[in-house]
Amino acid sequence: MVSIDFLVKEWLRLDKNPVTRLEIDKLYAEGNVEELEKRLRNRISFGTAGLRSSMEAGFARMNDLTVIQASQGLCMYLLDTIQNAIAKGVVIGHDHRHNSETFARLSAAVFLSKGVKVYFYHKLVHTPLVPYGVKKLKAACGIMITASHNPKQDNGYKVYWENACQIIPPHDKGVSDAINNNLEPWIWDPNVVDNSKLCIDNIKEISDAYFEELKVLSYYREDNAASNLKFVYTALHGVGTLAAKRIFETFALKPLILTKEQTDPDPDFPTVTFPNPEEGKGTLALAMKTANEVGAYVIFANDPDADRFSVSEKQKNGEWTIFSGNQIGVMLASAVLNNYRASGKPLEKLAMLSTAVSSKMLARIAKIEGFYFEETLTGFKWLGNVAIDLINNGYDVLFAYEEAIGFMIGDTVKDKDGISALGAFAELIVQLDKRKMKISEYLDELYKKYGYFVTENSYFICHSSTTINKIFDKIRYGENPYLYEYKLSYPKTLADHKITYVRDLTIGYDTSKTSNQPTLPVSKSSQMITFGLENGCIGTLRTSGTEPKIKYYFELSGNDKEQVTKELSNIVKGVADELLEPEKYGLGYRDE
């Protein structure tokens, strides 16, 4: 193992940014070996989510050097893998976060240095415009510089393949290997994009085409134009405002009422701790204040890069209901189903998708109504690629969603898109209003028809990968796995309910299959275990690819909502007490 002195010298040899050089210099002068080890010992890993980390000096962080190295690896992999990649070019966009534009410019410079055409979006864009650009321009790949809904100190590097979907294996490993073979910077010039003839800024053309395509999602433009409903919107200091306003124009809806304190892009996110609509009423407090002032009962929110979408509704008692991703998902799915049925096309040609940790309610709806449903691994990298496979097999894949408020509607983008979801849900509310029905009432109508599906999803915080692995190994092998040579020993019960099957997608084991081999892809680089209980409850524990979290997703369905909710609550308590043991392992709670 090389010394920390060597790693420091190597960083200072490669890094040309005076700010990040000074960070390492200072840590070295202070003798802060612990922090230097965290920053320099291991490289930031390139996975199916690309890169994501805090913006600091070090091989393990997001900074100019690691972005350049990632771009060099991606560039070489493209040139080796995709025919005519030089002429096809790459699409590069960025959000408003600190360093996002610089990272995008440095990435573009790498590709330009090898003669690769670059479609560079100089203006801030919401993430879906990058995969849309890849599709429209038939580019070799797309890069979006964003950390989505992460805290302000983070940034990320998201990669889309030539099929306009996020990359999946084996491309992630291929790119990762190519990065390690191309660590010496080729070029370090953020200004190349302003002078190169190979660099094209066609953001207006791409944006116009994108919104024109989204028109097909609007079925009731006359009703939209006639409606006087008030909708409050927050971009949470992100890039969504202009796109949100334009989708309302595209759908012939009256203008949105903006939460003025959060309308403009601000990389410091001054009014929220976490710029994520999923985090609850604290994040949406200003939007609720605005809605109360203007007399609106609906709030829409996008996350900072506008690929996620949230809906909240004011109830008769004055309290606000923030709908979960699963609830929004089944309501949008129902609207898509109704519109497809009205078209007269055979329902067996319609396909919808959701992920392994999303509600099973969509599968129930598909079984009852007669359209095709398929479950994928977590993440739109899987949803988008499976959607393409189904389209190639003759299906109309018009809806996919994941519980983390990500929705794909129609055929415009094979990724989550908070702007198309915004337009489609606003139109749904207009139609509900014609029936004198509120959102909560519509959701209850669906529950009564298909069953009450109650979910409890949350997470514990853990910054130690060693601790996370200990917890999952305990679940997998028992309290002292080294004594039993790591023989499988999953728990037999959970909260006094018999466990009827276990699916472990980390090691590739599924007791519900006669072969014990899961049908979903296996990934040794992440933890994911699913349990089925005798009462029909299904629950999954998994790690996050982008955040220091152990996430859990549990769901139970039945005819009596109160009984189901109570029973599920007891099971989730068992998850903490029996499986995760937060006090024993020093896990942080969600609100800490």
From TrEMBL:
GO terms for biological process: glucose metabolic process; purine ribonucleoside salvage. Its main location: cytoplasm. The keyword Isomerase applies. Coiled coil: none annotated. Keywords: Carbohydrate metabolism, Cytoplasm, Glucose metabolism, Isomerase, Magnesium, Metal-binding, Phosphoprotein. GO terms for molecular function: magnesium ion binding; phosphopentomutase activity. Belongs to the phosphohexose mutase family. This is 19353_t:CDS:1. It comes from Cetraspora pellucida.
